[in-house]
Amino acid sequence: MVARVAALVAYPGYLQQWRRRSSSGTELVYLPYQELGNWMGLLRNSALFHWALVPFFKQWRIMHVLLDHCMDSIFAPKSSSISSLSSSALLSRFLEVSSSRKSSSLTFIGSRPFRPSSYSTTFAMASNDFSKPKIITGDFGYVLEDVPHFTDYIPDLSTYSNPLQDNPAFSVVKQYFVHVDDSVPQKIVVHKDSPRGIHFRRAGPRQKVYFDSDEVHACIVTCGGLCPGLNTVIREIVYSLYHMYGVTTVLGIDGGYRGFYARNTIALTPKVVNDIHKRGGTILGTSRGGHDTSKIVDSIQDRGINQVYIIGGDGTQKGASVIFEEIRRRGLKVVVAGIPKTIDNDIPVIDKSFGFDTAVEEAQRAINAAHVEAESVENGIGLVKLMGRYSGFIAMYATLASRDVDCCLIPESPFYLDGKGGLFEYIEKQLKENGHMVIVIAEGAGQELLSESMQSRNQQDASGNKLLQDVGLWISQGIKDYFSRQKTMAINLKYIDPTYMIRAVPSNASDNVYSTLLAQSAVHGAMAGYTGFTSGL
């Protein structure tokens, strides 16, 4: 097991920084990426979680605010520097801000470990009263933030023995079932004099379940943008329901939320989903928007569905939370289980989202191509734009993986172009020293610099995401214009935009394993009667 602090530093995982002030007084942070290898160790072998949907999307955005307190700008690896800020000092600042801003309503359930060093957890969708999660206290400062369960609002429910007890593939495993009082600490590394702190229910198979196999009518829906691993999650939910719990009725909702009330369902069996993990995209189709709570819950009720598995990003999980609240209001015995999906990896508390490793692997190929192009000509510049609407995880990890990037621009850190210490000056310096350079920019970086009308800035897609201007084309033209004005050297710039290529591919081995863990944990939680939760590592 690795300290929970890994999850805290994963978001601003770029902690070793150097600062200097420009002539305009703006404080810049230069990032020598070669020094980040030691921090990467903190991001490995972490714990698997499920969590509350409403606090989930609240925390999602809080992390961006936290970064503002930790850094002013990150953009130029390999840059010379004047003074330094120790990584431990920056981490202390981050943890202090994180502690003061953390949502009190965030709740988890931990899950059965896939291996001894890996734990899975479930986060509950909180009720409308976010300030009052279910709290259980114990000795030495122990605090358990509990998770919604059928028994909270439906009395006298029958329980059944878990079918896994009679399954020869699982019954031979000692201590396979999770004890009802098992919990996972939010922080694994603590001071010896510290209180035990917040814990979350451990997820995984229970000895007693709240569904008979024959009564389960499950459905799966995928919403939002594509992500490597979507088909793997779908496949493993189906396989887990069929082969672990004997469930034979699993439906796929076609085309996102609106598929609940506007389209037919797709019957999902192990045979149907057998090879889908080898394909990109989602066999169920996806869409943005289309959320109509009443129509969706009416459809769930009319079809006799009692387990709903929702795979999607922050907008999707907001919708899932509303669906859960309506189901609870109606007193229905229906599980709502979410699996968070974002290729950007910008989910707090957990270490990564599924598909992220694959996206970084694909992004690195584009960077390698840019490096070859830049290195092959005089004063060559390779510019690569990668996904990252609000976070620079893909850009930063691909930069770390490639080892060929001279400058990485991310949304968390503003930068400027002209003047002393600006981006253009840095590019010119690198070309004079090395004869070529590679720049990586996340799609959300530098948006405040784009000279577009406020009207176009405020446009949104169907999920409520802000429509971004193409910063890659804009900065590419800006670099060309700068050197044209300077007339000091002729440059050869190649712009590569693999944006959608990195997400429309099958997941790699790492993401396949992770997606399997997420799917199995969601199914175990649903069969155990927990509802209003989502899962993540």
TrEMBL record:
<keyword id="KW-0963">Cytoplasm</keyword>
<keyword id="KW-0324">Glycolysis</keyword>
<keyword id="KW-0021">Allosteric enzyme</keyword>
<dbReference type="GO" id="GO:0046872">
    <property type="term" value="F:metal ion binding"/>
</dbReference>
<dbReference type="GO" id="GO:0005524">
    <property type="term" value="F:ATP binding"/>
</dbReference>
<dbReference type="InterPro" id="IPR022953">
    <property type="entry name" value="ATP_PFK"/>
</dbReference>
<keyword id="KW-0067">ATP-binding</keyword>
<comment type="function">
    <text>Catalyzes the phosphorylation of D-fructose 6-phosphate to fructose 1,6-bisphosphate by ATP, the first committing step of glycolysis.</text>
</comment>
<dbReference type="GO" id="GO:0005829">
    <property type="term" value="C:cytosol"/>
</dbReference>
<keyword id="KW-0479">Metal-binding</keyword>
<dbReference type="GO" id="GO:0006002">
    <property type="term" value="P:fructose 6-phosphate metabolic process"/>
</dbReference>
<keyword id="KW-0460">Magnesium</keyword>
<keyword id="KW-0808">Transferase</keyword>
<protein>
    <recommendedName>
        <fullName>Phosphofructokinase domain-containing protein</fullName>
    </recommendedName>
</protein>
<feature type="domain" description="Phosphofructokinase">
    <location>
        <begin position="219"/>
        <end position="524"/>
    </location>
</feature>
<dbReference type="InterPro" id="IPR000023">
    <property type="entry name" value="Phosphofructokinase_dom"/>
</dbReference>
<keyword id="KW-0547">Nucleotide-binding</keyword>
<dbReference type="Pfam" id="PF00365">
    <property type="entry name" value="PFK"/>
</dbReference>
<dbReference type="GO" id="GO:0003872">
    <property type="term" value="F:6-phosphofructokinase activity"/>
</dbReference>
<dbReference type="InterPro" id="IPR050929">
    <property type="entry name" value="PFKA"/>
</dbReference>
<dbReference type="InterPro" id="IPR035966">
    <property type="entry name" value="PKF_sf"/>
</dbReference>
<keyword id="KW-0418">Kinase</keyword>
